[in-house]
UniProtKB/TrEMBL annotation, chain A:
PANTHER family: CYTOSOLIC FE-S CLUSTER ASSEMBLY FACTOR NUBP1 (PTHR23264:SF35), NUCLEOTIDE-BINDING PROTEIN NBP35 YEAST -RELATED (PTHR23264). It holds the Pfam family ParA. One of its GO terms (cellular component) is nucleus. Residues 1-23 are annotated as: Disordered. The keyword Transmembrane does not apply. This is Cytosolic Fe-S cluster assembly factor NUBP1 homolog. It comes from the Eukaryota. Heterotetramer of 2 NUBP1 and 2 NUBP2 chains. InterPro entries: Mrp-like_CS (IPR000808), Mrp/NBP35_ATP-bd (IPR019591), NUBP1/Nbp35 (IPR028601), P-loop_NTPase (IPR027417), YlxH/NBP35 (IPR033756).
From TrEMBL, chain B:
The keyword Iron applies. This is Cytosolic Fe-S cluster assembly factor NUBP1 homolog. GO terms for molecular function: 4 iron, 4 sulfur cluster binding; ATP binding; ATP-dependent FeS chaperone activity; metal ion binding. GO terms for cellular component: cytosol. Keywords: 4Fe-4S, ATP-binding, Iron, Iron-sulfur, Metal-binding, Nucleotide-binding. InterPro entries: Mrp/NBP35_ATP-bd, P-loop_NTPase, YlxH/NBP35. GO terms for biological process: iron-sulfur cluster assembly. CDD domains: Mrp_NBP35 (cd02037). The keyword Secreted does not apply. HAMAP family: Mrp_NBP35.
Amino acid sequence: MSSVPENAPEHCPGTNSEDAGKASACAGCPNQQICSSGATRAPDPDLDAVQERLSSVKNKILVLSGKGGVGKSTVTSMIARALALDESKEVGILDIDICGPSQPRVMGALEEKVHSSGAGWSPIYVGENLAVMSIGFLLNSKDDAVIWRGPKKNGMIKQFLRDVDWGTLDYLVVDTPPGTSDEHLSIVQYLSSSPPVAAIIVTTPQEVALLDVRKEITFCRKVNMPIIGIVENMTTFVCPKCKTETAIFPPTTGGGKQLAADSNLQLLGQLPLDPRIARSCDNGENFLTEEPTSPATASYKSVADQIVKFFEGQS
Amino acid sequence: MSHDIEDIQDCPADSRLAGHAPVCKGCPGQSLCSSQDSQADPDQEIIETRLKAIRHKILILSGKGGVGKSSIAVMLSQMLANDGCKVGVLDIDICGPSIPKLLSVEDQPVIDTQWGWKPIVSPHSNIKALSVGSFLASDCQAVVWRGPRKTALIRRMIKDTLWGRLDDLIIDTPPGTSDEHLTILKLLASTRPEGAIIVTSPQKLSAGVVSREIRFCQKMNVPILGIIQNMSGYTCPCCSEVTEIFSDGAGEYLAKKYGVPLLGSVPLDTSILKAQEKGSNIENMYPNSPFGVSMRQILKKIQKVLEK
């Protein structure tokens, strides 16, 4: 990646340059002090350690959105569970939503605590071949507010990648917070050093969501992150009483389907809004095994299959 | 070689300890923090002048994404404007700015005068709005900024903006408890915001995340005006059966646990969604929508608290 940060002032000399922090263009840049101190020119000593850990992790999937509340955490957990249905595969979930970690609850591991050994931090096993790591496991209480600015969040993400002892993984599914900021830049920077890695983008059908999701697609293209495809969540609501399907979030501008066409991306699936899915997530249950005949289960399995095929095509 | 798991401690970025506390050791931002902490804010005076001309400053917070912060921020501002108040909406969600669409100011640029930025006035309601969305060339343009640059922009949105005299400034925030939230609280600190309205969806999963936001407010001494539980129940247009799509009860649970008023539950109302996307004045277009009726009752409660 270029040493000129995405957010740099015009004519930024680059954080690795001799003029870093000292050029006239640096005046007023919030990072001027760090650059002029020379800290940014030093090679990151942890990068090697991160690469070593990730060398035993085969395929990395970033679950992104841009918009909050579209179901990234739900989709992350369901895809991971679907991938783990193949018992010969080892699957991990990494939750880098530091302010709002959902994976401990969604995966039924709220009370768990992380242990460390000589080999590193042990992720929490929620199944024979399914492990989870989240900052939620490191907090002393369930409602502690993690009030951190960007640099400290980046530090934590790096620690997760450096210190978690996943062992050998076939798939690492990464749950992200909404937005295009520190966490996203950091995770892309670290994972890109260890391909293959690719993103799936989650949206809901309405334009207010698509607005933010288009930005996320732009972000992926800027940082050269391959996109497997788009998943549209909450496409229809099926009334439990009369079974009528309603477009609960009207796709006034064509929804995920149009977005996929406009962006030249695959639409991997359209997931219905099934109130039972929300309840399963609240209770940390596996919806795929609780409701094996639900159309949502079939859709999630299909998305997982397409992910598998994507990575098989890469190798 | 792995490192020990430390206790998760708060980042003291906005206190005198910034850069010097034990928890700062090893933090990538340590040198930036320790070089800034002893300096007084040169802009403090102008920020205070701007903010003193605004009677009520109300933050819309959640912690959780997608619960309807922006929709509720816009509805509150439209109701207040309909009642004749001078209202402004500040959108500090830099990555995902929704306000320009919801207030129908998408195609209007922010004018930079010699005295500062002129907020855009929404055509359907007399509301002044400012959002990073108004500075972007197109919808697809992504603002991929790390914390310090977001902080710098938010400061300018207060310091350099000609808000003028307002009765109410509604501040829409992104999900989380990070740079944007710390920055806006620091800016508002000397003139004390009236408080925060916390929005949640009914789901337990939301409650877990939103409880952190409540704890954040408590830690930062921000009064909580109350909790709004949004997307409470969906009425099937075919058989009128009301389903709690996102399970139930987070609002009441949070209100009880933290001793905070539950301002009300607002239904998921598809009738207004299309109007929202057009940036229409919801109350004028749909005077008796279920969403609007609930929000009016909530506004009455908020006004009672503000009058105290």
